[in-house]
Design a protein that fits this description.
The chain is an alpha/beta fold. The chain is built from 12 helices and 23 strands. It has 3 domains: 3-42 and 114-171 and 294-365, 3-Layer(bba) Sandwich (FAD/NAD(P)-binding domain); 185-291, FAD/NAD(P)-binding domain; 376-480, FAD/NAD-linked reductase, C-terminal dimerisation domain (Enolase-like, domain 1, 2-Layer Sandwich). Helix content is 29%, strand content 22%. The longest helix has 25 residues, at 109-133.
Length: 493
């Protein structure tokens, strides 16, 4: 029986364990954080649970535009005006619907955070029970490599395997000039221990994490300032999509400070002062540091056994998840391939399929779909606008605004679009970008097309529900269809 030892119980680790167990291997997982890892306990699961609550508040903001009026004691806002909320001046023609007045609907922060924590714990427990049912041995301890195939745990035991998988994840990046205290100066892992919704949250960093929490906390009623060192929000994303999100942020009252680098964050009594490199300061009740992450690869004994690390400390792996040492694999955020739970899980599965002699295809990053959980969401898969503009890939592209989608009109949705890329001539779908509510659900059809080499003809011939947001995907495909699409329809002979 092949013996597998896995260091780390996050998505890369526990998915690898399930595959290895199903193939008859003896599997031990050494984990110190709790099964599910940071993804389940402090990152993906709790953050998206919090965002689910914020989405409900955003939907309430749409209510007056749909003919729903709050009533009862304490209603003083003019809900007939679409510009009452999100910091818009009265008389604005933005069309932004009013947020339901807080006198009628409010947020209970204690219940919100308790629900988020309980969901994370429950998900972790579900995964742990699944591993136990599959006869996976779980060791709750820290561990380090003391040989190419040996992991020494902090409980004194040493576990030797034919194959070792390192899946230790990453941790929030900490700036020496902005040391988190867990009360006022925070990383995203501190948020769920708060007792209140911050009165004024200063978010430092405008990448995915910063944008998601800025969007969520504004919907939950916090004043939000977003400090971005770049010239726009979400600098690594599709430019058209990022523009939509930044426009929405500004319209909803988020103060966006582009080209503004934070040099330090200091706690002042019950608040914080964020000092910018140009001498300006931003005062707030709390500061959220969203300035990236670092791999958890220090003091694991990796270099002692010959595992090569990159300049940033990431474990170097190939598309089969192999490291520089035979029999030692790595998966997840500690590899720096793509910081996505889905990628970590696939890396872990690929590692076990390969190690145990199963037929397996290398990791294909060109088919990975990702999502940013702002409101609206941004979902992407395959090639990007940057690749097209740089001439890296020949492609045709079209963008269909959601504002002309009938279902979007019915739902009061004004922001967003569907963008598709296809190969000239053949019409093969190369990628797509969707900006919409629940774009994370809509992107699947585009992902299927990219993964399986479908053409815009095939998508255009596929029935979509009328009315539906997904109808904009088939509409985009019809715009991109080859010129001879439906040839002969006008002249049947």
């Amino acid at each position: 029986m092949t013996r597998i030892v896995i260091l780390g119980g996050g998505p890369g680790g526990y998915e690898a364990a399930l595959v290895a167990a199903s193939l008859g291997a003896s599997v031990t997982v050494v984990d110190s954080d709790g099964i599910g890892g940071a993804c389940v306990l402090t990152d993906c699961v709790p953050s998206k649970a919090l965002i689910a609550t914020s989405e409900t508040m955003t939907n309430l903001a749409l209510a007056p535009g749909l003919g729903i009026r709050p009533h009862g004691p304490g209603v003083t806002a003019d809900t007939s005006s679409p510009a009452v909320a999100w910091g818009m001046p009265s008389g604005s023609d933005s069309g932004t619907p009013a947020l339901t007045p807080p006198e009628v609907v409010g947020v209970d922060p204690v219940q919100v955070y308790e629900r988020v924590r309980e969901l994370a714990k429950a998900q972790s427990l579900d995964i742990e029970r699944r591993l136990e049912r599959e006869k996976v041995e779980i060791v709750h301890a820290t561990g380090r490599l003391v040989g190419p195939h040996a992991i020494e745990a902090s409980n004194g035991e040493t576990f030797v395997g034919d194959v070792v998988l390192v899946a230790t994840g990453a941790a929030p990046r900490i700036l020496s000039s902005a040391q988190p205290d867990g009360e006022r100066i925070l990383t995203w892992r501190h948020l769920y221990d708060l007792k209140e919704i911050p009165e004024h949250l200063v978010v430092v960093g405008s990448g995915v994490t910063g944008a998601e929490f800025a969007s969520a906390y504004r919907a939950l009623g916090a004043e939000v300032t977003l400090v971005s060192s770049r010239d726009r929000v979400l600098p690594g994303e599709d430019l058209d999509a990022a523009r939509v999100i930044e426009d929405v942020f500004v319209r909803r009252g988020i103060e966006v400070l582009n080209r503004s680098r934070a040099s330090s964050v200091r706690r002042i009594g019950d608040g914080v002062i964020v000092e910018l490199s140009d001498g300006r300061t931003v005062a707030g009740s709390h500061a959220l540091m969203a300035v990236g992450s670092v791999p958890r690869t220090r003091d694991l004994g990796l270099t002692d056994v010959g595992v090569r690390l990159g300049p940033g400390g990431h474990v170097g792996v190939d598309r089969m998840s192999r490291t520089s040492v035979p029999g030692v694999y790595a998966a997840g955020d500690c590899t720096g391939v793509l910081p996505l739970a889905s990628v970590a899980a696939m890396q872990g599965r690929i590692a076990m399929w390969h190690a145990l002699g199963e037929a397996v295809s290398p990791l294909r990053l060109g088919t990975v779909s990702s999502n940013i959980f702002t409101e609206p969401e941004i979902a992407t898969v395959g090639m990007s606008q940057v690749m097209k503009d740089a001439g890296a890939v020949a492609a045709e592209v079209t963008t269909v605004p959601l504002s002309r989608n009938p279902r979007a009109k019915m739902m009061g949705i004004q922001d967003g679009f569907v963008k598709l890329f296809c190969r000239p001539g053949s019409g093969s779908v190369l990628g797509g970008v969707i900006v919409a509510p629940r774009a994370s659900e809509l992107i699947l059809s585009v992902s299927l097309a990219v993964e399986n080499g479908l053409t815009v003809d095939q998508i255009a011939h596929t029935f979509s529900i009328y009315p539906s947001l997904s109808g904009s995907i088939t509409e985009a495909a019809r715009v991109l269809r080859p010129r001879d699409f439906f040839a002969g329809f006008d002249n049947p002979s």
